[in-house]
Amino acid sequence: MWKLCSKGFDKGNYQRKPSPSVWCPLRFTLDELYNGVEKRIKFTGEHMKLLPDPCAISPNAEPETLVVNIPPGAKNGLRVVYPSRVILDDRKVPGDVIVDVIEEPHAEFHRQGKDLWAIRKIPLTEYVTKEALTIETLDKRLLTIPKTEPGCVMEIPNEGMPCWHGFGKTGSLFVSFEVIYPKNLSLTREEKDELKKLLAKEENDV
């Protein structure tokens, strides 16, 4: 008759519960997601310990800080997992650190997949007097755009979001213009007559 022998088994192995995962939602501006960004999460407290990165070339100067690198073009909802990096409550088996990317709304640009959409608000004087218009991109470049009628949408290829995983093409930028008309405009009779002449000439030239 066979007997089950427990000799040689470490009963402690069955009691080693892994540390639970630590969830870290991080908010990013659209500018940061467009250009890529590095952020740091500091782990403090007597019940939490961050383990060093085993793949790091050089030791971390801040042992309690996790360096999070977000590539250009990272999308909203992207989840980055740092496996076996944190120990909670003196447990022997480390748990994962999970970083979720949360995209904050932008004042001018709206993201749809790889494409960017923007409504450029411009004063009436700028729209009337300039042959071309400009828009500042998320990496602070100025793009010169031919003037179109208000409300018309123009597509600019390769000026959308980069492809964060390195495969595929950059998206497009779609731009439309909204003219801001002056409020409470006060003109003299002579100025009104001159304005009528200018507008009539412009209409005849169309």
Question: Can you describe what's shown?
Answer:
This protein has 206 residues and is mainly β. The protein folds into two domains: 16-103, HSP40/DNAj peptide-binding domain; 109-200, Urease metallochaperone UreE, N-terminal domain (HSP40/DNAj peptide-binding domain, Sandwich), CATH 2.60.260.20. Helices cover 14% and strands 37% of the residues. The chain has helices at 30-35, 124-129, 189-205; strands spanning 22-28, 37-42, 48-50, 65-70, 79-88, 95-103, 109-112, 115-123, 132-136, 142-146, 153-156, 173-180. A hairpin with a 2-residue loop joins β7 (109-112) and β8 (115-123). It is elongated and about 90 Å long. The model is unreliable at 1-14 (pLDDT under 50). Keywords: Chaperone. One of its GO terms (molecular function) is protein-folding chaperone binding. Residues 26-182 form the Chaperone DnaJ C-terminal domain.
